[in-house]
């Protein structure tokens, strides 16, 4: 079943699984510390991980389809990701 998966797909999936695992560990850490101030600090550190995972996952995907998509379209995709990050940061 997994023998026909592209390397880009495997990389993207592993990165998302790592990201999800970090989120679950943070939630468990919330329960362990049982302190709102410390939980907010943990939550704030997660805000750094999300955009990094988004950018790296998108980059891996674009590398995987580089021969199928024109350079101009790849620039549009990166601009879109940049706008998403800007919109999240501005709110």
TrEMBL record:
It comes from the Bacteria. The chain crosses the membrane at residues 12-33, 45-65, 71-88. Keywords: Membrane, Transmembrane, Transmembrane helix. The keyword Transmembrane applies. This is DUF2619 domain-containing protein. It comes from Robertmurraya kyonggiensis.
């Amino acid at each position: 079943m997994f023998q026909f998966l592209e390397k880009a797909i495997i990389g993207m999936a592993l990165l998302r699984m790592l990201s999800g695992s970090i989120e679950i560990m943070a939630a468990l850490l919330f329960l362990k510390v049982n302190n709102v101030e410390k939980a907010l600090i943990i939550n704030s550190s997660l805000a750094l991980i999300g955009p990094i995972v988004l950018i790296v996952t998108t980059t891996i995907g674009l590398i995987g389809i580089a021969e199928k998509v024109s350079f101009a379209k790849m620039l549009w995709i990166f601009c879109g990701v940049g706008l998403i990050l800007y919109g999240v940061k501005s709110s």
